[in-house]
Amino acid sequence: MRRSSSTDIVPGNTPPKQRHDWQTVKQLLPYLWEWKARVIFALACLIGAKLANVAVPLVFKDLIDALSIPRQQAMMLVPLGLLAAYGTLRFSSSVFTELREIVFARVTQRAVRAIALKVFEHLHALSLRFHLERQTGGLTRDIERGTRAISSLISYSIYSILPTIIEVTLVMGILIARYPGRFALITASTLLAYVVFTISVSNWRTALRRQVNELDSAANVSAIDSLINYETVKYFNNETWEKDRYDLQLAKWEKAQVRSQISLSYLNLGQAAIIASGVSLMMWQAADGVASGAMTVGDIVLVNAFMIQLYMPLNFLGVLYREIRQALTDIEKLFELLAENREIQDAPDALPLESGPCSVKFEHVGFHYESRRKILLDVNFEIPAGHTVAVVGHSGSGKSTLARLLYRFYDVQEGCIRVNGLALPQLTQASLRAAIGIVPQDTVLFNDTIFYNIQYGRPTATRDEVIAAAHSAHLHGFIERLPDGYETRVGERGLKLSGGEKQRVAIARALLKNPPILIFDEATSALDSKTEKAIQAELEEVAVGRTTLLIAHRLSTVMNADMILVLDSGCVVEQGKHHELLEKNGAYAQMWALQQQQQSNHETIG
User: Fold this and answer.
1) Which helix (H) or strand (E) holds 245?
2) Domain check: are 372 and 259 in the same one?
3) Model confidence pLDDT, tens digit, residues 330-347
4) Cβ distance 555 to 582 under 8 Å?
5) Residue 55: pLDDT above 90?
6) What pLDDT digit, counting tens, does each position of 352-368 carry?
7) At what angle do helices 80-125 and 136-156 cross, to 10 degrees?
8) pLDDT at 70
9) Pick from 555, 556, 586, 554: which is nearest to 572 by CA?
10) Is the pLDDT of residue 1 over 50?
């Protein structure tokens, strides 16, 4: 998880309101109906399979009755047609079921893919504020469970719940048509008692399941946070502390999981008791009918077959209902992510930024992450096209916030930022960010190769262009000395590289993007003096003809800027060229003298 710095304190979001299950299902349906031809065909196969399934006991009853005669007659009158029909219906049920599976497989997987892609795209469209607040481990677990639950919900609904409803309807119709009303009454009463009991207890269990999910996410977050900060854990010898912290979360999860499992056992026992009672009553009535001569042996076989046929899916229906409730809970969290408000959005009439040189202007900008603490106060400056403006100041003065605002990660509360005379909200975010290249102070790399991380600046760049950018960042020689060269993997967040090596990758990546606006946010802070001087010359050369915002702590890197701003507590306290600011003998001159003294002491010690 990324954590905010002291200057990046952000308020918490209001938790979203709890959704209803129908809202979740309603939001899911359009993704399925996009394939309506396949859905309709799958439903037809489903009905065909259930018709064949229900017809099997009827044929079996006739077969039993036909054979319930003296042995000699039975040998002469073997009902070959009934035998053939029995086998055909059995096979037809399997054929229709598999056809439904084949046809509907693409619908399910495409729906999962479409929703997962939409959530992923939406998360990238959310503001930086959202991502600074969220814990990455919990977020990824919500997405993982949600996408898996979509597949489960569709499968359970189309493959199990709907077929069971159709089968129950057909069986009830046959019982009403062919037997005394008490048979249908017992069946309906058993079904009603089962469904009411299952829903009541499962709804109670849903709260337990939510708690299990939340504690599972919390434990996952704790583990990921600890592993991401592996080096810090080692630095402070806190392996035992981290293990105990993780175990505390696991203990809470274990307790909730045990409660959930015990409640599941109670549910299963109650369901078994209801089913056993219903089956016993039905068989008692059927046996009584056979004994009185009102029913044949085939009838008792038919009733028994129907009850078994209903019992199996009905018994599974309890499991399905629980799984569907769990799936709806997981999907609910996924759709809550889609419901997250996009703090920064393009206006309907937003224009693309035209290609070519760009000017940047901050007009009386005021900004805060939270109202109780102002970050920028009446910041006012301009960077003409092709010029370089440097911003210096102590840590926490708001320097890096300027870059975030220029990228429009946040909107300003006061004043306005303009590019080529247009306020940022008048421009599309995509075109604005395409025109800006940045080398951040804290460089985070993808867990991939060095080549991939450099090429990320412009994914369409050729290998020669990537290598040229590495040359410009004084990185090529280092890469060539590695056993795998450009195919060397950098590890999670680039941990296999030093801070200076990561910054040079970031510089190469920005140079490859070749934008008209450049931002160097402490771009050489992790480099040694020799490499810094070499790269500084390259950066100054690259900045020629580009609009450049140079954010720095080392004043030696800003001496040649066209304008230097001194930021203190969010206010511009001085501005001018290097020699002009020294002559003023103000804040800049004091910072310069202090850094010169520190450098002199360092060289003396060295």
Assistant:
1) helix 239-292
2) no
3) 888 788 777 776 777 888
4) no
5) no
6) 998 889 999 999 999 98
7) 160
8) 55
9) 586
10) no
Report DSSP letters for 412-440, one per residue.
-SEEEEEETTEEGGGB-HHHHHHTEEEE-
Would you say residue 416 has pLDDT above 90? yes
Summarised one tens digit per residue, pLDDT across range 154-189 is 777 777 777 778 878 888 888 888 888 888 888 888
End-to-end CA distance of the chain: 38
Q: How would you classify the pairing of strands 422-423 and 436-439?
A: unpaired
Strand residues in 156-230 grouped as ranges (E): none
Measured N-to-C along each axis, helices 80-125 and 21-33 cross at an angle, to the nearest 10 degrees, of 100
Which residue, of 311, 339, 367, is where some domain finishes?
A: 339
Same domain assignment for residues 247 and 363: no
The answer on pLDDT for 22 being more than 50 is yes
Q: Are strands 414-419 and 571-576 parallel, antiparallel or unpaired?
A: unpaired
* Backbone dihedral angles phi then psi of residue 435, each to the nearest 5 degrees: -90, 0
Task: Say how many C-beta atoms besides its own lie within 10 A of residue 498's C-beta.
Answer: 13
Cα dihedral across residues 71, 76, 82, 86: positive or negative = positive
Residue 143: CB atoms within 10 A of its CB come to: 19
Nearest-angstrom CA–CA distance, 502 and 526? 9
Same domain for 61 and 91, yes or no, is yes
- CA–CA dist 341, 126 (Å, integer): 7
Domain end position, chosen among 289, 308, 339 = 339
Residue 564 tokens read as 């230097």
Task: Note down the domain range covering 145.
Answer: 21-339
Q: Average pLDDT of 103-128? A: 77
In which band, very low, low, confident or very high, does the pLDDT at 381 lie, cut at 50, 70 and 90? very high
Nearest to 505 by CA among 131, 496, 1: 496
Q: Can you tell me the distance from the alpha carbon of 299 to that of 309, in angstroms, rounded to the nearest whole number?
A: 15
pLDDT band at 380 (very low <50, low <70, confident <90, very high): very high
Average pLDDT over residues 231-237: 80
* CA gap 175, 223 in Å, rounded: 57
- For the chain, the domain total comes to 2
- Position 195 scores a pLDDT of 81
Specify the CATH number for the domain of residue 315.
Answer: 1.20.1560.10
Q: How far apart are CA 565 and CA 397, in angstroms?
A: 12
Q: In what order do the strands lie in the sheet with 373-383?
A: 373-383, 360-370, 414-419, 422-423
Task: Average the pLDDT over 190-200 and give the result.
Answer: 83
CATH number, domain at 364? 3.40.50.300
The pLDDT-based confidence of 487 (bands split at 50, 70, 90) is very high
Q: Which pLDDT value is given to residue 79? A: 66
Our CA dihedral for 17, 19, 23, 29, rounded to 10 degrees, sits at 110
pLDDT at residue 14, as a whole number: 39
Using a CB cutoff of 8 Å and minimum separation of 24, what contacts does 343-347 make?
343/126, 343/127, 343/129, 343/130, 343/410, 343/411, 344/127, 344/408, 344/409, 344/410, 344/411, 344/429, 346/428, 346/429, 347/425, 347/426
Which residues, 6 or more positions from 215, have their beta carbon under 8 angstroms from its beta carbon?
A: 249, 252, 253, 256
